[in-house]
Each structure stands twice: as structure tokens, then as C-alpha cells.
Amino acid sequence: MNILVANLGSTSFKFRLFRFDGAGEASLLAKGGYERVTDYGSAIDDCLAELRAAGHVRSAADLHGVGFKTVLGKDLTGCVPADERVIAALEGFREIAPAHNPPYATGIQRFREKLPGVPLVALFETAFYQWVPEAASRYAVPETWYQAGVRRYGFHGASHKFVAERSAELLGRDDIAARVRSLYQAGPTPVKAGAKPLRVISCHLGGSSSVTGIRDGVAIGTSMGLSPQSGLPQNNRVGDLDSAAVPFVMKTLGLPLAEVERQMTKESGLLGLSGVSNDLRDILAAIQQGNARAQLALDVFVHSTRHWIGSFLTALNGCDALVFTAGIGENNPNLRAALCAELDQLGLVLDPAKNAALRTEGEISAAHSPVKVFVIPANEELVVARETLRCISSRN
Fold first, then answer.
1. Does one domain contain both 85 and 182?
2. Are strands 13-20 and 65-68 parallel, antiparallel or unpaired?
3. Sign of the C-alpha dihedral computed for residues 83, 84, 85 and 89 taken in this order
4. Which of 135, 186, 238, 295 could anchor a disulfide with 182, C-beta 3.0 to 4.6 Å?
């Protein structure tokens, strides 16, 4: 079966085509994308034309499903058919995720027009957090706010789910890996009585970043909250901020609300701290030139990430594995070393040589370290493809 995964950004469209064999194993047939997209209909047409020209999808009959990594829906989460209910949910939270929800709503409608009869599936980024304890998902706000939708949702769900499954495999816990695979269809299945809990802290560090605590393959909490603007400092988004800051700068600097929102989402984060760039590679280069603000940006990012790692070390009563994933987490050994520094009293000891040399998936902890440290390359699109196939199969 051929499953197409569509990743829609505010001005971009990326795709991957997977083929699943009879045993459910996936192979990547094609990938591509377009930047500066102004017409998603044309971008989708170009994508399908590319796949036809390559002989992968000659007609709609050769495509068995399209999966979307939707971000946030009002009163809706999970892995569900991408129907009118999904469109309404995306529109309901348009104001919270303005860079993500409108493109996905448009893209789903366009694919429905272009490929009538082909099943469309939405995997919400919030899906992995459906079973987070209420105390870890609630804000201390009036009940009317909560009823309106103000709570912690969590994001990067596909990435953290992949880490949950793959880390279980690397630690020899096939029972937990199987539990993760069935999560969106069956919910958290019972764990074998007397089995040792598997405690994983997953660090998705990239253009946007989050840290998630995972027990027995199920999230118990995450650093991101109501919107993708929260948690760790993002590339150009503020991350966590005291709510009093908004009315304060409006009054003190004479800024209208719209301008405050723009600055928090466009000029803050690593960009606002460093004054150099929202790209960590540029920030690291500036640090080499002695730029103090660039160094501060890195220090704040490390401090915030360690803060959340510490939070989940407490919530999980320890940790069996700390995992780094996504572009920054996978490609910056010095940053990984800074994040793991002086945690030996908590049972985590990095192997400097392994850490410096690793270029793919692998373990970077010392042989005697009770806590394992892994680098697991992100594969969110594969998760979306797998869950799309499972959703379609369960409906059939």
C-alpha cells in the first residue's frame, strides 16, 4: 500500500511517499517539497505530477491514503479521518496556531478535491498527550477558561512517539514498543504485572523544541503547553513567559496587542536573545567570534532544557534513558555534553568520545552509566504514515 504524508507549513509544502509491504514494513519511495508556497492547490498538483512522472502514482488508485501531521484541534485529537470534523477543529483553534492550522485546513480540502475517494487521515501532534494526568495538563485559571480550551496540549507528538517506540526497542523492551505501536487504536494497554517501569525523557531539539517525560511508552507530561509558542525558547518564538509581561510591555512601550504578539512569535526566542539569527548554527559561529549575546542565547536554551529534564527526572522517579532527537539534538555533540554535564550523581555519565564521534543513531553514554543516553534521528513522517495505515485498516 502507498501512503503519502503531507507536511504543510505557513509557506511550505513537503511530502514523503511510503510503500508498505504485506508485513507492514515501510520503504521510502519518494520525497520532495516546495518553499514560498502561495497556492496549495498548485503545490499539490505539482507533487502528484512528480509522483506520476516517477511512476510511483499513475492514478488515484495507486494511492491508498494521505496522512497529515495536523497540529492542534479544538475538542479533537488522536488519529482520525480528515473530514469536516477535523476542518472545524482546526478552524476552532486558528488563533492559537495561526502558522499551522490554516495551511492544514486548506491542504486537506485541496487533497479531497484532487483525490476524491482516497482516504485522508489527520494525526494530531497533541495525540501523544491524551493520557497525561490532569494535574500535568491543567493551568490554574478560572474554570470558564478551561472550558474554553485553555490547558496544556503538548506538541511534537509524532517525534516523541517515535522515540518512545524506538528507545524501548533499543532497551530490549519489546513489550513496551508493542504498547506504543497500538496506542492510538487501543489506548494504553495493561503492562505485565511486576514488570519494571520504563522511564524515558525525550528531548526534541530543533527549530522548535520540547522535552517530554514518558513512562511505559505513554507521555506523563511535556514542556509545551497551550500553543507551539510555549516551553523552551524556540527559534524565533518566546517560549515560556510570565503572563504579566504582555500588559506590562503594552503599557510601558506603548505597543498594541497585535505588535506584542508579532514580536513574541517573530523576534523572540534564540533570535531575540542572540540578536544574530534564529538558527543555532549561526549562533554557534557567532560564539566562536566572541559574541556575548550569542553565548547567552545558548546558555538560556541549555538552562531551560535542563530545567525540563530535571522536572521529568522527578516526575518519573529517575530515568532509564535520555534521548536526543531532531536537528539540533542529533547534530550538536557540544550541546548534548552541556545538557548532560554534572548529572553523574543522578546516574547519567556521558562518554565524550562516543558523543563526539556519533553521526547516526546510537548510544553515547559511558559503559558504566546506569542511565543510557541515545541519539535517535527523528522520523515523524514515518509515524504519520504508519498511523494513517493503521487508521485506514481499522476502518476497513
1. no
2. unpaired
3. positive
4. 186
Cell digits for 219?
A: 507521555
Under a CB-based contact definition with an 8 Å cutoff, are residues 56 and 62 in contact?
yes
Angle at 293 between CA 303 and CA 308, to 5 degrees: 15
In this structure, are 366 and 248 located in the same domain?
Answer: yes
Reported as a single tens digit per residue, the pLDDT across 26-65 is: 999 999 988 888 888 888 889 989 999 988 888 878 899 9
Average pLDDT for residues 264-280, to the nearest whole number?
94
CATH number, domain of 114, equals 3.30.420.40
Alpha-carbon span 213 to 340, nearest angstrom: 16
User: Which string of DSSP letters, residue by residue, matches 102-136?
Assistant: HHHHHHHHHHHHHSTTS-EEEE-TTGGGTTS-HHH
Distance CA 220, CA 136 (A): 7
| Helix (H) / strand (E) containing 76 | none
Q: Grid coordinates standing for 196? A: 519494571
Query: Which residues lie below 8 Å from residue 333, measured CB to CB, with a gap of 6+?
Result: 355, 356, 358, 364
- Find the domain containing 296 and state its range: 172-375
Question: In this structure, is residue 391 part of a structural domain?
Answer: no
The percent of residues above 90 in pLDDT, for the chain, comes to 83
Q: Given 3-state DSSP classes, what are the helix, strand and coil percentages for the chain, each rounded to the nearest 5?
A: 45, 15, 40
Do 92 and 21 belong to one domain? yes
Tens digit of each residue's pLDDT (9 = 90 or more) over 9-37: 777 889 999 999 888 889 999 999 888 88
Tell me the HSE value of 290 on the side-chain side, using a 13 A CA sphere. 0
